[in-house]
Amino acid sequence: MSSLHHPAPWNVRRPPRAEGKNVLVTGGNAGIGYFVAEQLAGTGATVVLACRDTARAEAAKVSIRARVPGAHVRHIRLDLADLSSIEASVDALRLDRLDAVVCNAGVLLDQPPRRETSEGHELMFATNHLGHYVLISWLAPLLAAAPASRVVTTGSFTAKSESLDLDDLQSTRDYRPKRTYARSKLAQMLFGFELDRRLRAAGSTTLSVITHPGGALDSLTPSRPPVRLRTTGERLRGLPAGLLLQGKEAAAWPAVRAVLDPSVRGGQLWGPRVFGIRGLPALEPVQGHLADTALAARLWTATAALTGLDPSSTLR
Ligand SMILES: NC(=O)c1ccc[n+]([C@@H]2O[C@H](COP(=O)([O-])OP(=O)(O)OC[C@H]3O[C@@H](n4cnc5c(N)ncnc54)[C@H](OP(=O)(O)O)[C@@H]3O)[C@@H](O)[C@H]2O)c1
């Protein structure tokens, strides 16, 4: 059993083998999600990239296969901003069980104006929170079919200092892009903790684990042709930031550990150990508003009303 003070030993360069496991990674074509997918493929797991753009997903597959000979990797189309399309994406998985899903995809707009999806939801809240909520709702039977499966939610350190306005979840009254983003990440984290409480109450073996990647920059991230190339100038300009922040290869470590480490428990929060910003994955305390169970339950109810779905009914 792990504890805050005595986490089990973990080697980020040699995670355990995971042949025969099926893992879905949203946004596995770029950034942190790409490296989560690459590192999981390196364990022998079957990795499905869930991406909105087929050409970018193909590029990620090419790169993973070049680095991991014999990698089991494929992709499905998933647009988290189009909630009505997500059921069909899950059907396209053609799996009878899913051992883990890494809810990694995310969008951050740092400039106004406020943008809405075609279904009328604020874009960041819809993509980051509602899309993953709907995805988990449709995935629930596949997760229940795998023993001790895991839902891994990607939060953010920005969520820790943000509060949720349940009366303005979609930032219609007051839109400030960075705050709306941080609130969408907080909603995701609260959902992840509430999901675990509901899984435990239902007697399920599925775990819901929350991770966050710290602060990760493309300029500190190694090249992965044809996915992304880092120029020498970019690498040099990024050097000072490297004292504080990290690249996306390292930012992937908490999620990979959350998928694979047998000592990880449901309801835990994992992030980089140095100030929660960079470094090896470590267990973090769940405190403050992240531990607000009443708030999380109210968010769940509000999300079910917005999406017309409730994974509670299929949790097993
Ligand atoms: N980087 C950081 O410092 C940091 C800090 C805290 C939390 N995070 C979180 O970590 C996660 C990954 O961040 P990142 O830095 O790797 O971001 P990134 O490089 O911008 O990659 C984002 C990924 O999400 C995908 N995506 C965006 N909208 C989507 C949609 N509607 N449907 C499906 N996929 C969609 C993107 O696909 P396309 O390639 O098609 O655009 C891309 O694969 C996000 O959840 C982010 O909030 C990052």
Structural class of the helix and strand makeup? Answer: alpha/beta
Q: Spell out which ligands are present.
A: NADP nicotinamide-adenine-dinucleotide phosphate
Outline the low-pLDDT stretches: none
Architecture, according to CATH? 3-Layer(aba) Sandwich
Round the Cα radius of gyration to an integer and report it: 18 Å
Task: Specify the biggest β-sheet.
Answer: 8 strands, mixed
Walk across the major sheet and give the strand order: 3-2-1-4-5-6-7-8
Count the beta strands: 8
CATH superfamily heading: NAD(P)-binding Rossmann-like Domain
User: N-to-C SSE series?
Assistant: EHEHEHEHEHEHHHEEH
What is the end-to-end distance?
A: 23 Å
Shape: globular
Q: What is the CATH fold-level name?
A: Rossmann fold
Helix content: 25-40%
Mean pLDDT: 96
Estimate the strand proportion.
Answer: 5-15%
Number of domains: 1
CATH class: Alpha Beta
InterPro entries: NAD(P)-bd_dom_sf, SDR_fam
GO molecular function, one term: oxidoreductase activity
Protein name: SDR family NAD(P)-dependent oxidoreductase
Keywords: Oxidoreductase
Give your account of this protein's structure.
The chain is α/β, with parallel strands linked by helices and 316 residues long. It has a single domain (22-307), classed as Rossmann fold (3-Layer(aba) Sandwich). Helix content is 35%, strand content 14%. The chain contains nine helices and eight strands. The chain has an eight-stranded mixed beta sheet with strand order 3-2-1-4-5-6-7-8, sandwiched between helices. Helix 5 packs across helix 9. The longest helix has 25 residues, at 177-201. The chain is globular, with a radius of gyration of 18 Å. It starts with 21 loop residues before the first strand and ends in a 9-residue tail after the last helix. The mean pLDDT is 96. NADP nicotinamide-adenine-dinucleotide phosphate is lined by residues 26-27, 29-33, 52-53, 56, 78-81, 104-107, 127, 154, 156, 185, 212-213, 215-216, 248.
